[in-house]
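Practice problem 4.
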């Protein structure tokens, strides 16, 4: 399989390469193993969704099959490239890290489909090893006290002043970015963009806020988690 596929790349003969069922199953097995490895390492210290994990496992198999089907057929190859360019992952926000893993899965499928299983294995191990080490070391992480703070208060409280001393005590900066009424106007839902002075005192800050708002709902999260969160 490997020699026939490799030689076909440089051959002037436009006849598609014939691959037996056994050779195809071996290629699928290699792609699946590498895809599972990519998904497992990608899940480490990541909020990776179940759908993305499944995609990382199955993409190499799908890509290698498509490559085998369009081998030596230039028009079909262009159609496949166009299909990949239209791919979208809309079920959940995809980070740059996720995009790297998706690209790796596609590259593994391409390598296996062209017969370069060894290169696919080396590429997978190399990229995942570097990714694992960088993740373990926290490379590129910015330790920031910036938070999105959501607080529910009764209508009897003046939200302009009720928390001002606590914000002065626990935050470097604070901005009220949204006010919303709920429960027939009996409650206010407030959203603040804050930067904590000391991240280790986050619980202490929340406890004091709970005393002021009558132990109603309070949530605090990092900005990248709070962008689409409704309160």
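Answer key:
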């Amino acid at each position: 399989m490997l020699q026939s596929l490799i030689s076909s790349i440089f051959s002037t003969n436009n006849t598609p390469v014939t691959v037996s069922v056994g050779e195809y199953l071996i290629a699928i097995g290699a792609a699946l193993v590498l895809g599972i490895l990519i998904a497992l390492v990608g899940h480490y210290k990541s909020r990776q969704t179940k759908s993305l994990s499944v995609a990382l496992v199955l993409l190499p198999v799908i890509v290698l099959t498509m490559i085998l089907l369009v081998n030596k057929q230039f028009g079909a190859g262009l159609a496949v490239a166009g299909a990949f360019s239209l791919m979208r992952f809309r079920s959940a926000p995809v980070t740059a890290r996720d995009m790297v893993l998706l690209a790796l899965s596609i590259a593994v499928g391409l390598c296996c489909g062209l017969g370069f299983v060894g290169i696919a294995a080396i590429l997978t191990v190399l990229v995942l090893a570097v990714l694992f080490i960088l993740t373990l070391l926290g490379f590129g992480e910015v330790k920031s006290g910036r938070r999105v703070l959501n607080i529910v208060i009764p209508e009897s409280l003046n939200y302009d002043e009720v928390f001002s001393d606590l914000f002065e005590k626990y935050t470097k900066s604070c901005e009220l970015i949204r006010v919303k009424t709920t429960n027939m106007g009996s409650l206010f839902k407030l959203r603040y963009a804050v930067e904590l002075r000391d991240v280790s005192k986050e619980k202490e800050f929340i406890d004091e806020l709970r005393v002021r708002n009558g132990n109603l709902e309070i949530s605090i999260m990092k900005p990248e988690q709070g962008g689409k969160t409704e309160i």
